[in-house]
Amino acid sequence: MFEAMLELDDSRWSELTHAYGAASDIPDLLHALAKRPEQQGPNDEPWFTLWSSLCHQGDVYTASYAAIPHVVEIALSQANPIDFGFLLLPASVDVARTNGRGPEVPDFLLPAYDLAISRLPDCVLAHRGESWSQNMTIAAMAAMAVSKSHHALAEAVMNLDEDWISKINNGEWD
Question: Strand, helix or coil at 84?
Answer without folding.
Answer: coil
